Amino acid sequence: YELISLTPERTPPLASAEVTAAWMNQIIEQCILMAPEQYMWLHRRFKTRPEGVPPRY
């Protein structure tokens, strides 16, 4: 197993809940993109795929 701990580049923006949530989602996205096959896809958000693109599920 490998554990990667990321240090945020800056403190979270507190302008609004939406801005803070977007900042958090960007960090989560970075983590998922490191190993997308390990991410637990709970719902089928990407059911419809462009023609020729393999299914995610």
From TrEMBL:
Keywords: Acyltransferase, Cell inner membrane, Cell membrane, Membrane, Transferase
GO cellular component: plasma membrane
Location(s) in or outside the cell: Cell inner membrane
Molecular function as annotated in GO: acyltransferase activity
GO biological process, one term: glycolipid biosynthetic process
Listed InterPro entries: LipA_acyltrans
Main location class: membrane
Name of this protein: Lipid A biosynthesis lauroyl acyltransferase
Organism of provenance: Klebsiella variicola
